[in-house]
Amino acid sequence: MLKCRNVWRKLAPFARASSTLCRQNVKRTGLHNARVPGHVPTAHMATGPTGSGGENRLYVLVIGAVAIGGGIYAYRTIQEGKQRYEERIATNTSLHHQSAKQTTTSVQIETPATEAIETEVVPESEPQAAPSTEEPSPPVPDAETAAPSETTEPLQADEPVLEAAPEETAEAPAKPLVEEEPSSEPGPAEQTEPSPPPVVESEPAASESPAAKLSEPPAEVVAESAAGLDTAPPSLALPPHAPYLLIGGGTASFAAARSIRARDPGARVLIVTDEPDLPYMRPPLSKELWFSDDPAVTDSLRFKQWNGKERSIYFQPPSFYITAEELSNAENGGVAVLTSKKVVHMDVRGNKVKLDDDTEISYDKCLIATGGVPRNLQVIDRAGEEVQKKTTLFRKIDDFRSLDKVSRNIKSITVIGGGFLGSELACALGRRSHHSGLEVIQMFPEKGNMGKVLPEYLSNWTTDKVKTEGVKVISEALVKSVTCKDDQLEIKLKDGRLVKTDHIVAAVGLEPNVDLAKSAGLEVDSDFGGYRVNAELQARSNIWVAGDAACFYDIRLGRRRVEHHDHAVVSGRLAGENMTGANKPYWHQSMFWSDLGPDVGYEAIGIVDSSLPTVGVFAKATAKDTPKAATEMSGTGIRSESETEDVASSAVAASTPAPAVTHKDDYGKGVIFYLRDKVVVGIILWNVFNQMPIARKIIKDGEEHADLNEVAKLFNIHED
Question: Residues in the chain with pLDDT < 50?
């Protein structure tokens, strides 16, 4: 404004002279024409008397220049005012975020109160790469270095400690932090506004926060160590974001992680599991581990398969995984596992989850593979704490270790349940009873072992087989009550029978874990349980479900939910592929297997329900028709690992006649077909191994067969 005023003072004489000349020209023209014109033509000023045209043009140019200069000045003034306004708003916002962080962040530097007043913002131990000029303190320029992106990330209160360099978190460099970086904006309002909160709040934080007590040893105050990274709680290392988040640490999650990494080698995958162990396979917990000769098997968790080869229960050693701290910055990606952490809430709109310690982790794509939890009998739930302490619900590694220890220190144990798990555990414990004198009892409501799966005649044969393993079998047993008396459990059955035992193993089924359904707004199937998913195993646009918790639609057999290892492998693998954009439908017919020791086993596929009509074709077994021989031939004890989805290439009928062997006492090996509307919907291969692709093709074709004896020839059961 001062510049315009000075210019006007210099140009005013010219403007007044030009105005005077214009008035004289008008009067002269009027007198010459003997009248005063009503208006002066615009062109007359340029064509007036000699000498007047140049002065008029000068007048116009001066006025125009003044107008243009004034407009430019006004425009620049408005823009500068707007810029200062935006800078002030940004400053206030930054101050607000800093104040909020300082109210929740514990003191990270052991400093007396007087030193805290001098440095004021030393508790904010973030990198100095981008010093801010927005928060100067009154005594000396401030050195606040928080970048805008760091103030908006959902980090934990103590997480900045892990990210700070050692010299930035130590006590000595506090003074240089204040003296190095001068501020460039000394606005009085901005100087005085942010100063009081850090001074006032830094002192109570040191006394109130358990994680930042100044009197605690260096292990609990990370900033006190010379390296700045002493031992810290695991929660400090939680990454705030995971591109691929897998909830659950079982077989399905590991299969998905491996599939994601195969299609996207740079993918960063985070597995969150409530178990303390890395991903492992569950089948050996009720099979091979119990037959190990190693007294330290509960610690090593290594076992010999039926073929004699030794392996670990874990899918991969710890070196396969990266730490959670490394995940966010891993250049080549990797798989990290958060153990002993449970996801308790899902925000599907915000794409984030909350853990049981209130930590939040955001994600791009998420897999729910939470599996299931073992069911318990209601009579045991209501029996009280004393009975529950003597009851094992078998599912995890800890359950295996606990049951192994208990079985070595008691005289009697009772397995309730006649399904796969119950029968396998009964046989395993019965085999141990030959040497220890342990009494093993198995009871179930069916007429025979696996009565819900096998035809009655085969169920009865299986029951006799279990008895030969040293197990006392009580069939058609319905538990009425369980009480504890004289440090022993008394199981009273509804028919009046009373069974006394020292410990109970409840193997009565699995309940799919759908705890996240309510918070995530996901649909749970009312008939089969589990999360309802589409053909691509999708529950929502960026949420997939695999394993025991998935209720999927089978294109041949309708909607189903499967609780077996092979299904977990295949569904996890497919979910991982679809999370990386494959968009493949689930058409695989998963199989399952069960071994009653090294001599008897079977593999099954499809719907195997004893209530369906069945046709069995059997033959005499040979030495190679055992689980042990099958694993020696395939090289693996986890038989689904050798499975393939290729079309069966060996589906050629044998020329040897195949007469049906019906209801004989010795069922060495054979094939059992389960029918629905004369169509094969399920197949059990009894002591017939490595023929599952043929069975899968038969179910996939969905054709009626007039003579199933001819179909049985495809499995070559009569060849020696």
Answer: 34, 36-52, 103-236, 641-664
**Dist. CA 87–CA 439, nearest whole Å:** 81
Burial readout 249-275 (b: 16 or more C-beta within 10 A, e: otherwise): bbbbbbbbbbbbbeebeebbbbbbbbb
Distance CA 10, CA 375 (A): 98
The whole-angstrom separation of Cα 442 and Cα 474 is 6
Q: Provide the pairing of β-strand 591-595 with 601-606.
A: antiparallel
Dist. CA 673–CA 675, nearest whole Å: 6
Q: Given the structure tokens 């010219």, which residue do they identify?
A: 14
User: What gap in Å lies between CA 217 and CA 223, rounded to an integer?
Assistant: 11
Residue found under tokens 């089924």:
509
**pLDDT value, residue 146:** 35
Residue 152, amino acid: T
Parallel, antiparallel or unpaired: strands 268-272 and 334-338: parallel
pLDDT of residue 634: 57
Contact 304, 288 (CB under 8 A): yes
Encode burial over 460-493: b for 16+ CB neighbours within 10 A, e otherwise. Answer: bbbbebbeebbbbbbbebebeebebeeeebebeb
- The owner of tokens 């009580």 is 474
Q: Is the pTM of this model over 0.70?
A: no
Count of CB atoms within 10 A of residue 339's CB? 16
DSSP state of 655: S
Q: What percentage of the chain has pLDDT greater than the value 70? A: 65
pLDDT at 689: 86
Return d(Cα 46, Cα 382) in angstroms, integer: 112
* Cα gap 679→699, rounded to integer Å: 8
Residue 343's pLDDT is 97
Q: What does the pLDDT read at residue 412?
A: 96
How do residues 391-417 score in pLDDT, each as one tens digit?
999 999 999 999 999 999 999 999 999
Contact in structure between 606 and 660 (CB atoms under 8 Å)? no
Element at 538 (helix H, strand E): strand 538-540
Instruction: Give kind and range of the element (H or E) at residue 312.
Output: strand 310-312
Q: How many Å apart are CA 508 and CA 78, to the nearest integer?
A: 78
32 C-beta neighbours (distance < 10 Å), count: 9
Determine the longest span between alpha carbons in the chain, in angstroms.
146
Amino acid at 680: V
Residues 444 and 418: their CA atoms lie apart, in Å, by 5
d(C-alpha 603, C-alpha 688), whole Å: 8
DSSP string, 666-709: ---EEEEEEEETTEEEEEEEET--S-HHHHHHHHHHT-B-S-HH
For residue 576, the SS3 value is: helix
Closest among 167, 146, 155 to 223, alpha carbons compared? 167
Model pLDDT, residue 25: 61
The end-to-end CA distance of the chain, in Å, is 109
Cβ atoms of 553 and 530 within 8 Å: the answer is no
Mode of pairing for the β-strands spanning 543-545 and 538-540: antiparallel
Comparing CA positions, the residue from 681, 657, 528, 527 lying closest to residue 608 is 681
| Cα–Cα distance, 176 to 195 (Å, whole number) | 19
DSSP of 118-161: HHSSTT----SSS--SS---SSS-------HHHHHS---TTHHH
Provide CB contacts within 8 A for 466, sequence distance 6+: 423, 426, 427, 430, 442, 449, 473, 596
Give the angle subtended at the CA of 361 by the CAs of 357 and 365, to the nearest 5°.
140
Tokens read off for 14: 């010219």
